[in-house]
Amino acid sequence: MSKLAIVQMPPVFLDRAKTLERAVGQIEEAAAQGAELVVFPEAFIPGYPAWAWRLRPGADWGACEALHGRLLDQAVDLKRGDLEPLCAAARQHQVTVLCGINERDSDFSRATLFNSYLVVGPEGTVLNRHRKVMPTNPERMVWGFGDAAGLNVVDTPCGRVGALLCWENYMPLARYALYAQGMELYVAPTYDSDDDWIGSLRHIAREAGCWVVGSGTLLRGEDLRVDVADLAALYPDPEEWVNPGDSVVIAPGGEVVAGPLRREAGILYAEVDAAKVGLARRTLDVAGHYARPDLFQLKVNRQPQCPVDFS
Questions:
Q1: Residue 299 falls within a domain, yes or no?
Q2: CATH code of residue 210
Q3: What is the predicted pLDDT for the residue at 168?
């Protein structure tokens, strides 16, 4: 048995340094409670660009430009070492940390943002970086398209862990690519919420025969009081639940064992047993004895997609 922690907290919106400081404090608290794996939400650093769902990208040009400029400035450049405080906390407390970031491209144009999800090991090194392959609806005005280079499963103290972001979890081929790597713990950080979303995660737990961790975004109107483009005017009610969170842990087979944590900031803990995965797949193993590779095969291009090849 291993203990995991899902941190359901708002970021310090559009402030990378203060959000990292908050994350470090939550890692310390979770580690003190015996957690070996600490999970943060989608785009946690420095916050999910919620304005994309209320502004009109083609019409509200000035506001969109100002907010995007702040996000670009506060995004995480991995090569610059922006994530070092979080990596140091993972190393100090000997925990594995999964965290969503707005990642700034530092290789080519240096101006494109990606919705990225990282696995940081207990040595403080980034073990995997997955860039969301398909931003949803207005998200495409914020983030670029990722590739399959980070569509990987990683060994952790809680088992073999893979992650898909938000509505990537509705992409059956992306899910299958993870299933086929012996995944035991499936992490789904998301801006989605409510009982329909949790129902989808329960289906995934049955389909994959593994543990499913839903990491929800928590935002209220008061969390979006940022002096950029009059953002507060989009959220005039400070008590409004812009997103209620709904973090949850689901056992292989679909039983909810922790959560959902709804309209509440905190850390959701759960004990997980990777041995239950093999038992769940005894009757249904979609990437194993149920796969029928003579009929169906999936090809995944893991080659990083680059706009130019300097050969």
A1: no
A2: 3.60.110.10
A3: 96
pLDDT in tens, 217-242: 999 999 999 888 888 889 999 999 99
CA distances (Å), origin 56, targets 138, 230, 274: 9, 15, 45
The residue segments making up the domain with residue 72 are: 2-280
Task: Classify residue 149 by its DSSP letter.
Answer: G
Residue the block writes with tokens 């494109």: 112
Alpha-carbon torsion, ordered 85, 103, 14, 98, to 10 deg: -50
Token pair belonging to 100: 């969503």
| Residue 36 is assigned to a structural domain of this protein | yes
Number of structural domains the chain divides into: 1
- Which tokens in the block code for residue 236? 């005039």
Cβ-based neighbours of 224, under 8 Å, separated by 6 or more: 13, 50, 231, 232, 234, 235, 242
pTM of the model: 0.95
Would you please indicate which residues are annotated as catalytic (active-site) residues? Answer: 42, 132, 166
Q: Which residues contact 203 (CB under 8 A, 6 or more apart)?
A: 254
Please tell me the predicted confidence (pLDDT) of residue 170: 96
Could you tell me the two tokens for 198? Answer: 């949790």
104 bridge partner residues = 113
Q: Answer whether residue 301 is part of any domain.
A: no
> Is the pLDDT assigned to residue 185 strictly greater than 90?
yes
Q: Kindly report the backbone phi and psi dihedral angles of residue 40, in degrees, each rounded to the nearest multiple of 5, phi listed first.
A: -110, 165
Task: Return phi, psi of residue 119, to 5°.
Answer: -115, 120
Site of tokens 């995004």: 75
Tokens representing residue 265 in the block: 């900031």
**Pairing between strand 256-262 and 126-131?**
unpaired
